[in-house]
């Protein structure tokens, strides 16, 4: 399977295939509005604004798996817009680990395991970098600030 084989759901319930972004580098991040790492939304938005004209897309996927999300996808997206000015696509709230994990996150963790080969997402704001061909290039830990990903992002642009 390829990343382009997955269909995801926006915060408003609209489903779409990730093939919509074929040929564009992507940053895919699991988010939570009540997480201590939530200020990363600000840097993610800055990066999005700076590079979206070069094709970069950032996709936010709220998860309450760590009990730090405020509700459904609409409420989470509204909080991100109001507090951090987020304009990149936000999706429905869903699990990122375990049997019920969203299929996209099962794929991402298979393609880019964490420390010691772990397939589990340890916390909110785990970030995955995908190249223009749909290959998962790198996984970044929650504590990695989005600006620290810039060298890797720029290589893909």
From TrEMBL:
Keywords: Oxidoreductase, Peroxidase. One of its GO terms (biological process) is cellular response to oxidative stress. The active site is at residue 35. InterPro entries: Glutathione_peroxidase, GPX_AS, Thioredoxin-like_sf. GO terms for molecular function: glutathione peroxidase activity. It comes from the Bacteria. The keyword Oxidoreductase applies. It catalyses: 2 glutathione + H2O2 = glutathione disulfide + 2 H2O. Pfam families: GSHPx. Belongs to the glutathione peroxidase family. This is Glutathione peroxidase. It comes from Lacticaseibacillus camelliae DSM 22697 = JCM 13995.
